From TrEMBL:
<feature type="region of interest" description="Disordered">
    <location>
        <begin position="21"/>
        <end position="57"/>
    </location>
</feature>
<protein>
    <recommendedName>
        <fullName>Lipoprotein</fullName>
    </recommendedName>
</protein>
Length: 177
């Protein structure tokens, strides 16, 4: 009998507490003077899911031309995209105690893609600087694509074109300029 009474008291307390919780007023809708515009940074069908809050804040680095570039310390490439002569590469790795450095290299040559588009095979380099910490670190280093454009112009004699950018384990991204 005691359990039944206590169960009833607890149930009434819960129901009474929930019923007395004030509801949050709805925020008034803000009138928009202009229709919403799609984010110009993403092409149709491209998802911004691989972006981070730090994207766009990292300095833009030059791409090294090095036929023997090695990846260095381990990392996972979460995704990458090219926009306005800048390549953003979202990476994930362990660390958290030291500042890591990233680089991007390619051998300076284009391979022919299956559809005839030149392909630049890129390697992202990572130096963890002996960071043995175990935190999960996300970063979006940024790289200047003008050296690839200049090499394309030298080789093909065209001022505009397209190059497929390839990073290991990732689908290629078409970069049009």
């Amino acid at each position: 009998m005691r359990k039944l009474i206590w169960s009833g008291v607890v149930l009434c307390g819960l129901l009474g507490g929930c019923a007395s919780t004030p509801e949050k007023p709805e925020e008034p809708a803000v009138a928009q003077s202009e229709p919403p515009v799609a984010n110009p940074e993403f092409a149709p069908g491209e998802s911004p899911k691989n972006t981070t809050s730090q994207e766009g804040k990292a300095p833009v680095q030059a791409i090294a031309v090095d036929a023997n570039a090695q990846p260095g310390d381990p990392l996972t490439i979460e995704g990458f995209r090219a926009f306005r002569d800048v390549l953003d590469v979202t990476v994930r790795h362990g660390g958290g105690c030291r500042e890591h450095t990233y680089g991007l290299a390619w051998n300076g040559e284009f391979q022919q893609g299956t559809d005839g588009t030149p392909v630049a095979h890129l390697v992202i380099t990572h130096d963890a600087k002996q960071d043995m910490c175990k935190a999960l670190v996300m970063a979006t280093p940024r790289f200047d694509l003008t050296s690839i454009v200049e090499r394309f112009r030298e080789k093909y004699g065209k001022s505009t074109g397209a190059v497929d950018l390839a990073l290991p384990g990732q689908p290629t991204v078409r970069y049009e300029f």
